[in-house]
Amino acid sequence: MNARAKPKHEPILSARGIVNRFGKQDVHNKLNLDVSPGEILGIAGGSGSGKSVLLKTLAGLHRPNAGEVVLNGKKIETIGHAERASLIGVLFQQGALFSSLSVAQNVMLPLREHTDLPANEQARIAAMKLELAGLAAESGLKFPSQLSGGMVKRAALARALALDPRILFLDEPTSDLDPLIASGVDALITQLNQSLGITVVIVTHDVTTLFGICSRIAVLVDKKITVDTLDHLMHSQHPWIREFLHGPRAQGAMTARKWSHGNR
Amino acid sequence: MSASRRRDPGRHSPTIAIKDDGGRFALEGALDIRTLREAANSLNAWQRERKSRTLDLRNLSSLDTPGALLLCDLQQHGIELTGIRNEHKSLLDLICGLERKPLPPQPAVSRGRQLVIELGKGADNAWRDALEIITFVGRAASAIGQAFSHLHSLRLPSISRHIDETGIHALPIVGLMAIMISVVIGYQGVAQLRPYGGEDFTINLVAVSMLREMGVLITAIMVAGRSGSAFTAEIGVMKSREEVDALNVMGMEPMELLVVPRLIALVITLPLLTLFADVMGLLGGAMISESLLHVAPLQYLERVRQAVDDSDLFVGLIKAPIFAFIIGVIGCMHGLRVRGSAESVGQQTTRAVVKSIFLVIVLDALFSILFDKLGL
């Protein structure tokens, strides 16, 4: 089941010749990216390198100036609402939970919109998703304003999983979390990837996440993207990548990775 | 391989069925969120017949988490699941390993009880609000006193910026509103007084009501909507981004820096805006007189002079600084009440506008009674 051992599949998501431009500034210049089914792809890059814009482009939330995104064999802008909802789940950086709805109602919203299941069945599924995301059923009654940072991420993850999407986009899933909770979220992502077979695309600054759970890493530098496994990227000659992967924080994350892999 | 178990959207809608193969029952097709209802119904019927205690899953082509939830429930009811495909195993293990506790029921409160609770909460809030307003008025007054006794803490650049924003920028809209209101009063006056042959008194009606009441009232309402809300939003955003805390830490008093300049600016501008509104209102009256009563502008002025007393102007203008103070206090107070999120800024802004307009009108009513008693 482990995605890392699998041979290459037809990509589930592929971006071709993406150009994103804001004013006169090019953020992405003819960028190509393939995501294989079942993998966990980490997208890294310096501040302002356009990681979040890339994530939005891949999820079909931002239309690039040029290029196309193909999801599951179809151009993303031609996919209907309901189908897109069942293909893509997004965990936004601040959670983006609807503040007027309780946590359970947040999770039930896509079920209510896209299925004809009776309300009690929706509630059962929502409770199960919350538990999958590591939240007690009781927290389903709470409102987003009553949740801590870690719980917001988990509730938002439960909502992103509501329709069993094939691809999960995570925007900085571990930012603003304390290290213990961040590790918990990392473990959760790995578990969901392995058990549900969900393809995961993570945008993150967190080197521990990148090194610990990602099967491949995409580094955004010079408006292009370099995608490879961590081991290969470690030997990259590009100065930014070298500094990023060999810097003091990366060293710490590397130690953590060896430690956790040794304990598995 | 894990991907293959997933549904393939875009194809025909999947089907699910229970096949009876000589006493061996097997679930065939796709068990996912789209077939869940159908599957649950047929599985329930099958269970009721109690023909078998085992269910074969060999021919289950796809399975998602709600489907797995259904199967785990069967297993809990003593049905043995056989022939589980490799690719479904870890999913089933994961879901069956969960506690699967249902959502706790919403604590139900009866309507009558709910009403009483709301009423109590409302009363409590109103009481707290009143206390908070009184406290804030006191703090603001003392901060203003402080500012005037130590002139260096009077922030003149800030005051002049707020005068510009709350006063000069409001001139066009206030002037236009005043003209419109006097047109409205004028038309009503002419229509109501004409049957008695007293339509000429429309001029008195417009002039007196503009100067005494309408000028100051519509200006105050406009300013509450324009500037009171802006105060709440500006201070609220600063509060939610911890800028107010930053001021505190650097030894600067938010009251002195944020509230006092705004209050002083508003107390200066609202009377001036009121005067402007009065003038524009009289101008609107002149237009009405010209077109409906055929009274020439110079004649109109003469009539206004006879109709209007100094006290009429005074009664209108004296209320302006007091309204200004209330609007400013409510706006700033709600700005400082913002907690955390951007949502809170919106809530507080709404409340500030509603509350300040409400208080302005209440005060205006009280003033009417007071001036009547004083014989003004």
Topology:
The complex is a heterodimer of chains A (264) and B (376).
Chain A lengths: L12 E10 L2 E11 L4 E6 L5 H8 L7 E6 L2 E2 L5 H7 E4 L11 H12 L4 H14 L16 H12 L6 E5 L7 H18 L2 E5 L3 H7 L2 E6 L2 E5 L1 H4 L5 H8 L1 H16 L1
Helix pairs in contact in A: 3-4, 3-5, 4-5, 7-10
Chain B lengths: L15 E6 L2 E8 L4 H14 L4 E3 L3 E4 L1 H12 L3 E3 L3 H11 L14 H39 L6 H11 L4 H23 L8 H39 L2 H7 L4 H40 L3 H11 L2 H28 L4 H33 L2
Parallel strand pairs in B: 2-4, 3-5
Antiparallel strand pairs in B: 1-2
Helix pairs in contact in B: 2-3, 4-9, 4-11, 5-9, 6-7, 6-9, 7-9, 7-10, 7-11, 7-12, 9-11, 11-12
Rg value of chain A:
18 Å
Helix content of chain A: 40-55%
Shape verdict of chain A: globular
CATH class category of the domain at 10-93 and 168-263 in chain A: Alpha Beta
- Spans of chain A of 5+ residues with little confidence (pLDDT < 50)? 1-7
Helix content of chain B: over 70%
Strand portion of chain B: 5-15%
Structural class of chain B: mainly alpha
Second CATH tier, the architecture of the domain at 10-93 and 168-263 in chain A: 3-Layer(aba) Sandwich
Q: How are helices and strands ordered from N to C of chain A?
A: EEEHEEHEHHHEHEHEEHHH
**Largest sheet composition of chain A:** 6 strands, mixed
Percentage beta strand of chain A:
15-25%
* N- and C-termini, Cα separation of chain B: 90 Å
Counted up, domains of chain B total 2
Count of alpha and pi helical runs of chain A: 10
Largest interface: A-B, 45 and 35 residues
> How many DSSP-defined strands of chain A?
10
Index terms:
heterodimer, A: 264 residues, alpha/beta, Rossmann fold, six-stranded mixed sheet, four-stranded antiparallel sheet, 10 helices, 10 strands, 40% helix, 23% strand, B: 376 residues, mainly alpha, Transcription Regulator spoIIAA, 2 domains, two-stranded parallel sheet, disordered N terminus
